[in-house]
Write a structure and sequence with these properties.
Length: 452
């Protein structure tokens, strides 16, 4: 006879359920972001590569997500095992939080809150990271549009999701991560998401080389516009999920900075507004309406590290710089003849700007540690934001990301190959991989068939 499992009612009271649904909502926002990125890139490729672009991107996203869930969530959680001096912390974190770990194999009401308080929230948060890993791979795939081999994309996604995201998240994201505990500040994931994406995309696009026919702009503007609108809807959903809801105390950023849910939410939309104003001005100056769509995203990225540190008027002012950093990045890549007009310019420059601005605007703000730890290395808010630590974080993340991207890309080049053949690129990847001929070719073939 089986013994009934003990039920801990505190794990499933109303507050716990509401908090869990809050993070479910945020996780769905990240997943919507993956769909939005797929729509944007689908709008930018030639018709002959449309289906392959969507298939590669979505599958790459799920490969990265699944790879992260193997042990990635355990690696990220290891920082808390260190903070609470859990014996054999790393192996215990793996045992508890790998994909089939003890804490991901029980219902929340059957987990003792003395060991894992808010178990539902921790379980849901694993999906938050699952979706972010997928978003990371989907964005990186955009640097190889119309020329990267499927196998190369899938290997890259598996490595990024299974190794890079866990490692950089452990180093830079969370209130007791090694760099956060030294004063490094982040909010959405400027270091472990956008900076990683920007650096990796730069290396990937360089190793791939330019396309044989580089599009002058979106081939399907409506599809691309729909993707940008979906992304603007997704961003506020997942941004608010980056902080901690603490009953009776308020809302804290992921580094345990004291903040406010309302202010963070307002800051996101002020960043959209500032980016839209600058992007609109650039669009009319250059006669390129695309900047009206990408401007709000660039404004958001320019603020992504500091939403919990600034006031709405400050977010508006800082976000005005985003689109100008974007066009500067585009100009530099054109000069270097690197074919990545979108991912690297959007992700790298604005994310670096955001973390440096966080170090300037938020200098001296207390953070780090964990509530309930009164003193010692992991005492609550013992560390302080500083510009020097932010810059140190940039150098570390850029160096790690660039080295890993270069080594993996070179290995792929020497094995399965990184780029499709020139004949396949000219023919179109929809036809090569899916036997789907472009519409123009189908239209030309119909009269011949009728005549025959």
């Amino acid at each position: 006879m089986s013994v009934p499992l003990q039920v801990f009612s505190d794990q499933v009271d109303l507050h716990q359920q509401v908090t869990a649904f809050f993070y479910i909502f945020a996780s769905l926002g990240v997943f919507l972001g993956v769909i939005a990125v797929a729509l944007i890139d689908a709008g930018f490729v030639h018709r002959k590569n449309l289906m392959d672009t969507i298939v590669q991107k979505i599958l790459s996203a799920f490969i990265a997500s699944g790879s992260f869930m193997l042990v990635g969530y355990a690696v990220w959680n290891y920082q808390y095992y260190q903070a609470f001096a859990v014996p054999n912390g790393f192996s215990q974190a793996l045992s508890d939080w790998w994909m089939a770990g003890a804490n991901l194999s029980k219902f929340a009401q059957n987990i003792d809150p003395a060991g894992v308080p808010e178990a539902d929230t921790f379980q849901v948060f694993s999906v938050f990271f699952f979706c972010f890993s997928g978003l990371t791979a989907a964005l990186i795939h955009g640097a190889g549009l119309e020329r990267i081999k499927p196998g190369a994309s899938f290997i890259t996604a598996a490595f990024v999701g299974g190794v890079m995201v866990p490692a950089l998240s452990y180093l830079t994201y969370g209130s007791v991560s090694p760099l956060t505990n030294a004063g490094l500040h982040d909010f959405v994931g400027a270091y472990c998401l956008y900076m990683l994406v920007g650096v990796w995309s730069l290396v990937l696009a360089w190793r791939l080389g330019p396309r044989l026919s580089i599009p002058a702009g979106p081939h399907n503007p409506l599809l691309a516009a729909g993707g940008f609108f979906a992304l603007l809807l997704a961003i506020p959903m997942f941004v608010i999920g980056c902080g901690f809801l603490t009953p009776g105390q308020g809302y804290f950023g992921p580094t345990m900075t004291t903040s406010g849910l309302g202010i963070v939410f307002a800051n996101v939309f002020m960043s959209f507004a500032g980016g839209a104003l600058s992007g609109g001005w650039i669009a009319y100056r250059k006669r390129k309406p695309l900047y009206i769509l990408s401007g709000p995203v660039a404004g958001y990225l320019a603020c992504t590290a500091l939403f919990d540190l600034v006031l709405p008027w400050q977010a508006l002012v800082i976000s005005l710089c985003g689109p100008f950093i974007l066009i500067g990045g585009e100009a530099l890549l054109r000069k270097l003849k690197i074919d990545d007009p979108k991912v690297t310019p959007l992700a790298l420059g604005p994310s670096v700007f955001s973390v440096l601005m966080a170090g300037w605007v938020g200098a001296g703000v207390p953070q780090g540690g964990f509530p309930g730890i009164a003193d010692g290395t992991y005492a609550f808010q013992h560390a302080h934001v500083s510009f020097a630590t932010q810059l140190e974080g940039v150098l570390i993340v850029v160096a790690i990301s660039a080295f890993a991207a270069l080594i993996l890309s070179l290995i792929i080049e020497k094995t399965v190959g990184l780029r499709v053949s020139a004949q396949a690129e000219q023919r179109g990847l929809d036809d090569v991989y899916w036997n789907m001929q472009p519409q123009a070719a189908n239209a030309a073939a119909k009269p011949q068939a009728t005549a025959a």
